[in-house]
Design brief:
three-stranded antiparallel sheet
């Protein structure tokens, strides 16, 4: 589930009841480290996939943890062991390995997000530098054009509607070039 907090978007997923004793919590929460809804959706989908893999791995560990032909019996036995923290050392190692793999995949995702954010910011800085460079080159021409526009405005304000007759080019240039 995608949750919007003031700090940004977060991913929240409920932990199935049978896995809660093993994980020691009812929900999994992760910051998606973004304020952009579309980017948060993409990141939440990746987190959802990883949590699904985590639950599947735990489920497989539970089903293969006992040497019994009954899958239900194996699940029940593993759940009881989780509830009482009475796991066989091999089961404990397997469970710890599953959780560590999940945690490392989450950390890898976070690192990828930070890299993507850094690349985005670098691209924006390069864009800013290109625009700034272009503005420096055309700045004097823009200022000259702005001066011409202001002079034209002054001429029209001074003469008003009397400028119905066309002004000769030389006369118009004289008005523009004359100092204030």
């Amino acid at each position: 589930m995608l949750i919007r907090l003031q700090s940004g978007f977060h991913f929240r997923r409920g932990i199935p009841v049978r896995f809660r004793p093993a994980l020691g919590k009812r929900e999994i929460w992760h910051s998606l480290e973004t304020l952009d809804r579309n980017l948060a959706r993409t990141r939440a989908c990746a987190r959802y996939g990883l949590t699904s893999q985590l639950f599947e791995c735990i489920s497989l560990a539970m089903s293969s943890s006992e040497e019994t032909s009954s899958l239900n019996k194996a699940v029940e036995t593993f759940q009881e062991a989780l509830a009482t923290s009475d796991l066989h050392p091999v089961q404990q190692d397997l469970f710890q390995s599953i959780v560590q793999t999940y945690d490392s995949e989450i950390q890898a995702l976070k690192a990828r997000y930070k890299t993507m954010n850094a690349e985005h910011l670098l691209a924006r800085m390069e864009d800013h530098q290109r625009v700034s460079s272009a503005l420096e080159k055309i700045g004097p021409e823009i200022n000259a054009l702005m001066d011409i526009i202001h002079k034209i405005k002054e001429i029209f304000e001074k003469h008003g509607t009397r400028l119905v007759q066309p002004i000769q080019k030389a006369s118009f240039r004289k008005h523009l070039e004359s100092p204030k």
